[in-house]
Amino acid sequence: MSHSNLENKNTDTEGINGSQLKDSGFSNLKYLLVGIVFGIVFVKAEIISWYRIQEMFQLQSFFMYGVIGSAVVVGIISVQVIKKFNIKTIQGEKIEIQPKTFSKGQIYGGLLFGFGWAITGACPGPLFAQIGTGVTVIVVTLVSAILGTWVYGYFKDKLPH
Predict the structure, then answer these.
(1) 137: how many CB neighbours lie within 10 A of its CB?
(2) In this structure, are residues 91 and 17 in contact, taking their beta carbons and an 8 Å threshold?
(3) Which residue of 36, 39, 121, 131 has the fewest C-beta atoms within 10 A of its own C-beta?
(4) C-alpha–C-alpha distance, residues 52 and 46, integer Å
(5) Chain centroid offset of residue 134 CA
(6) Distance between CA atoms of 50 and 123, rounded to whole angstroms?
(7) CA 136, CA 54: separation in Å to the nearest integer?
(8) DSSP 8-class letter at 111
C-alpha cells in the first residue's frame, strides 16, 4: 500500500489513520515543547505551589481563583470565537463541540477531584511540572491518578451515569 493510500484509509492492521500518520515522529516534538513552556509558566506563576493551593482551599487568597477564573473566561471566549468564525484545526478539520448532558455523577466526581486536590496540593495539569521542580513525592499522586483512572475505566459500565 502506498503512502498516499495510508493517508486516506484507516488501516485495521496498523491501527492508524491519515491524520495520525501525519502527526507521528518528530512532529510530536511540538507537543513536548508546548508542555515544557506551560510547565515553566506554571512554575513561574506559582500555580503549582502547594502553599498557593492550600491558600485557595482555606479561602486565604484570591490568587488561584483569579487564575482559574481567567482560564474559564479565556475558554468561553475561545469557544465562542471557534463557533462564530468556524475555525478549523491545523490539519483543516472542522471543530465540533458536542452538547453536554448533566449527570449527578459530575457532582460526585467534582467533589472527589476537589478533595484529592486539597489533600495532595496537586491537580492533574501541573503534576509533571511539580515533579520536574524536584517535588518527587508527587509521583505518589501521579501513580494514584493513573490508578484511579484505570479503576474508573474498569467499573465505568457498572456505575450510574
Answers:
(1) 13
(2) no
(3) 36
(4) 7
(5) 22
(6) 10
(7) 19
(8) H
Contact between 57 and 118 (Cβ < 8 Å): yes
The three three-digit cell numbers of residue 25, written as one number: 515522529
Here the cell at position 78 is: 475561545
**Measured distance CA(144)–CA(20) in Å, rounded:** 29
pLDDT at 80: 94
For residue 94, what is its C-alpha cell? 472542522
Instruction: Express each pLDDT in 58-92 by its tens digit.
Output: 999 999 999 999 999 999 999 999 999 998 888 88
- CB contact at 8 A, 52 and 66: no
* Residue linked to cell 515522529: 25
Pair 42, 129: CB distance under 8 Å: yes
